Amino acid sequence: MKPRPRTRIQRQNRDAILEAALEVFSAQGFRGATLDQIAAAASLSKPNVLYYFASKEAIHLALLGGLMDSWLAPLRALDPAGEPLAEILGYVRRKVEMSRDFPRESRLFANEILQGAPRMLDAIEGELKTLVDEKAAVIRAWGAAGRIAAVDPYHLIFSIWALTQHYADFDVQVRAVLGPGHDPFAEAGQFIEELFTRLLAPDARAH
Prior knowledge:
The chain has ten helices and no strands. By secondary structure, the chain is mostly helical. It folds into two domains: 1-53, Orthogonal Bundle (Arc Repressor Mutant, subunit A); 61-206, Tetracycline Repressor, domain 2, CATH 1.10.357. Helix 1 packs across helix 2, helix 4 (56-76) runs parallel beside helix 7 (121-144) and helix 6 crosses helix 8 (153-169). The protein starts with 7 loop residues before the first helix and ends in a 7-residue tail after the last helix.
């Protein structure tokens, strides 16, 4: 028997809970967050929250599941048939845009990893690793063919993650150091693209 479809109010309440939880989890981490905080942020009672989600962990898992799909989409879009440098720089650009547009999601993911990924380890060892292995093979083949500099593809991907997500996870620090009058994400995008353009130029290792 199929479950009954959610009513409009049920969809709105569920979305409100997830939005509130994203705000609370990204600020407090999983351990620091409470159902009371989530309920208050959602303008719902705690029993009402528990009607939609059995526990704080269930809410967290729902957020992480949606986040994994969004987080992997730019890497999935890297096209083996495309021009190598353009494909990699396109990935870099999309990651900078995600850090700019979804900073709470980035911090949620970072907090989960810092805690040892207790709720995401299966997805990381499964879906994430499979995708990274696939794209690493593409990047390695491009290097072997001389279409880009031959670099370790895994550490290239890790470097892209580190350089782009830093601007979401350490936004306060970045803005404090740069001071007023700067657009961190515009400046970062330009700098990071130039950095990887130089690194990946086919003759980069010849100098």
